[in-house]
Write a structure and sequence with these properties.
It is a single chain. The longest helix is centred in the first third of the chain and has 27 residues. The protein is mainly alpha-helical. It starts with a helix and ends in a 6-residue tail after the last helix. The chain has 21 helices and 5 strands.
């Protein structure tokens, strides 16, 4: 938008690094000052945090607003870390909480994971993590709290800033203070997260995350869920994260009784969409959005093919429990949602009550189409599509995924 172009033009003549520092010392001191807390907990987050900061300065090519936006985000993650650490110190009994049989919706990015989480979240027994809970977890919400919580409006203003920075974002992915979020929104504070790779060109950090076993990220993930459920157990946790797809064995290490809803959609169409989405995310902070290969394992054909082939291998070799993975083909689901929901609930071992089915069907019927605009993107010419189709052939045949192009 014109207002942001002007900000960046004016900012380009300033000492941006001096005015908006992204160094460790400055960020930690500001977070401690803002919260009046000083204990960041364990030390396992520090190495990835330091690697991320170095990559932001050397690789991300942030414009002026990008630095402002990034510093604000990093402070928020650090403050969240301080507050959660303090809350556990005050309430050590939370460590004894058990997260039982969580349901995870995953699949390639742009394969329908968001709409599936929204539909399954209409079941009154499902418990999702809302944006405001992810950003401002302490104190955890409890029955009888004053409503509306003022944190909702604050989270809404922060997350919808993306729409004001790049207005086309609203047509790609709707966000809001009370809307459910991906798991990455509450694992930022572990600093082991693909979310950073999807927001910045930070290939060195992305390489570090790819080589990490993710145990710490899942430990922090469970820490947040324990905190949020400590004031009242959910019927079942309903979680979502396309970025879990490359790490399903580690997810089952953390949650052995997890249930996976595996969304399946034409990978050629999904890949084209995620390239457009990530380009927009990078564009929010940089004038050169594709200057590197930060998110290459979700943006480039070969790594995506390899990722999908690994999933097939895990299922075939028993590295992940096949009986706890329920495939859902996007086109088949929306052709007959009632029948598909019955099959899905049976697969994830949850009773499908008449009330739950009615609520989910009602959500589907009332879901606005194109309310925030249409996401228009290029899938490439015939030769590109044909080449990608051949590469994804085994995956599509294995799972029976129809082509949409």
């Amino acid at each position: 938008p014109e207002w942001l172009q002007r900000v960046n033009e004016e900012g380009s003549v300033l000492d941006a690094r001096g005015v908006v520092p992204l160094d460790e010392r400055s960020l930690l001191a500001a977070a401690q000052h803002n919260t009046s807390l000083d204990d960041f907990g364990d030390e396992q987050w520090r190495e990835p945090f330091q690697i991320l900061l170095k990559a932001l300065e050397e690789e991300a090519d942030l414009n002026f607003w990008g630095r402002v936006y990034t510093r604000n985000d990093l402070l928020g993650h650090l403050e969240t870390r301080l507050q959660i650490t303090e809350w556990y110190k005050r309430h050590p009994e939370i460590e004894d909480e058990e997260v039982v049989a969580p349901v995870f919706v995953t699949g390639l990015p742009r394969s329908g994971t968001t709409i599936m989480q929204e539909i399954l979240g209409a079941d009154p027994r499902a418990r999702t993590v809302k944006m405001w809970e992810a950003r401002f977890s302490c104190p955890p919400p409890a029955p009888g709290d004053a409503s509306p919580d003022p944190r909702i409006a604050r989270a809404d203003a922060l997350c919808t800033m993306q729409d004001r920075i790049t207005p086309e974002w609203a047509a790609m992915h709707k966000v809001g203070g009370e809307l459910p979020v991906e798991c990455i929104e509450f694992t930022y504070a572990s600093f082991v997260s693909d979310a950073f790779s999807a927001s910045f060109q930070v290939p060195s950090y992305s390489a570090w995350v790819a080589g990490n076993d993710q145990a710490y990220a899942f430990w922090w993930h469970k820490r947040v869920l324990k905190l949020l459920q400590s004031t009242g157990r959910p019927g079942h946790w309903l979680l979502k994260g396309p970025t879990h797809l490359p790490f399903l064995p580690q997810l089952f290490d953390a949650y052995p009784d997890a249930r996976i809803v595996l969304m399946l959609r034409d990978p050629v169409k999904a890949l084209a969409s995620v390239v457009d989405v990530c380009g927009t995310l990078f564009w929010m902070r940089s004038d050169d959005p594709f200057s590197g290969d930060s998110y290459g394992h979700f943006l480039s054909v070969e790594p995506v093919v390899a990722n999908l082939e690994r999933v097939i291998g895990w299922l075939e070799q028993g590295d992940i429990p096949r009986e706890q993975v329920q495939p859902v083909r996007y086109l088949e689901f929306f052709a007959d949602p009632a029948a598909q929901l019955e099959q899905l609930y049976k697969g994830i071992d949850i009773e499908l009550t008449p009330e739950a089915l009615a609520a989910m069907q009602g959500y589907i019927a009332q879901k606005p189409k194109g309310k925030f605009g249409e996401h228009d993107y290029d899938t490439g010419g015939e030769a590109v599509v044909a080449d990608e189709r051949e590469r994804f052939k085994h995956f599509q045949e294995y799972f029976g995924v129809e082509s949409e192009l």
